[in-house]
UniProtKB/TrEMBL annotation:
<dbReference type="InterPro" id="IPR004449">
    <property type="entry name" value="SixA"/>
</dbReference>
<protein>
    <submittedName>
        <fullName>Phosphohistidine phosphatase SixA</fullName>
    </submittedName>
</protein>
<dbReference type="Pfam" id="PF00300">
    <property type="entry name" value="His_Phos_1"/>
</dbReference>
<dbReference type="InterPro" id="IPR013078">
    <property type="entry name" value="His_Pase_superF_clade-1"/>
</dbReference>
<dbReference type="InterPro" id="IPR029033">
    <property type="entry name" value="His_PPase_superfam"/>
</dbReference>
Length: 156
């Protein structure tokens, strides 16, 4: 399975709630930069947190890739979600190529769990960082990090 993990772009600092924070102009630019890394990828699904900034980031990626499929909004990709719950939910996508659009601290902890088998080594995910993971199984310690891209960088 190929799994792409994307942290949302830069968001405004204040809003009525954390869930309502929207992308800044810089955040939209960051997402546009990393979206090109997904060109020609056979994404089976884009799964996103219900938070506004993640929804906006996912929509920007979908539009940049010219995809018409809906973004799947899932409640288990919010900042404080349990990475182990995410693993069980991803069983439904086994063998497919999937993009998750989410937040810190979840995205770093999830990547660390998938790569190292534990959460003590979270992957450093800045705004709009994109991680590419691959493995036969979506399980703790069962995936390899193929690339980690930050805005203004390209794939290894």
């Amino acid at each position: 399975m190929r799994l792409w993990l994307l942290r949302h772009g830069e968001a405004q600092a204040q809003a009525r709630s954390d869930a309502e924070r929207t992308l800044t102009a810089r955040g939209r630019e960051e997402i546009a930069q990393v979206a090109v890394q997904l060109q020609a990828r056979p994404l089976a699904a884009i799964l996103a947190s219900p938070y506004v900034r993640a929804q906006q980031s996912a929509a920007l990626v979908r539009d940049a890739l010219g995809l018409v499929d809906d973004i799947h909004t899932v409640p288990w990709l919010t900042p404080d979600s349990d990475p182990r719950l995410v693993l069980t939910r991803l069983d439904d996508y086994a063998g497919e190529e999937v993009l998750l659009v989410t937040h810190q601290p979840l995205v770093g902890a999830l990547a660390g769990l998938l790569i190292h088998g534990h959460r003590q080594q979270p992957l450093p995910m800045h705004t709009a960082s994109l991680a590419e993971l691959d493995g036969e199984l979506v399980a703790a310690g069962a995936m390899d990090l193929l690339a980690l891209v930050h805005p203004h960088q390209s794939l290894k």
